[in-house]
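Today's session is about reading a structure prediction critically. Students often jump straight to the picture, but the first step is always the sequence itself: look for stretches that repeat, for charged clusters, for runs of hydrophobic residues. Only then move on to the predicted structure, which in these notes is written as discrete structure tokens rather than atom positions. Here is the chain we will use throughout the hour.
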Amino acid sequence: MIFNLKSREDKFYQLFLDGSETVCNGVAILREALEEYERLPARLDELTAIEQVGDSICRTILEKLNQTLVTPFDREDIYMLARELDKIIDNVHGTLEKMVLYKTGTPTEEAKELARILVLATDDIKKAFKLLNDVKSNYHEVIDLCEDIKFRENQGDHQYRQAVAALFENEIDPIEVIKWKEVYEHLETALDHCEDIANLLKGVALKYA
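Below is the predicted structure for this chain, in token form.
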């Protein structure tokens, strides 16, 4: 079977492009916010607006999925890809939200590094979605990007463990440990959802290339 998402269902292709672009925009704001802590509340407002855009895109994909008789690939894959994109931006938003609510203070280097890894992973996700309109021709590129995303997630797991270990080793105040551990968990969970997307995209490529 020749799989061509653009010709068969351009609406899904464009929505996934919009969704991945929205995720990248949100992650970029997160990384910038960690470098300019004094503007954190304002950046949270920006990220809240972006999260709402992401929610809208997810709802639109699911609505169109229910309205479409013939889908470009498995309905379950479309559903899961939409949900996983939404979960990434939810956790990115949760990161800044917790930092503002908990008044965490100056961002740690560990948080900045997790955000840097997240930027790389979501950029690869966006690249993979751009290639999805013709996965037969772009099969190897999609697979390579999926492997890169999984590598980033592994980097994130390692960084998360190091970050938590540093908290318990260096932080005297247990309240501060709890605050930062929650922040790190949001970042690590966002990377987990990146890996979930990589696995889904790899599955689509294998089935339809």
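Discussion point for the tutorial: Residues 5-208 form a domain with the Methane Monooxygenase Hydroxylase; Chain G, domain 1 fold (CATH 1.20.58.220).
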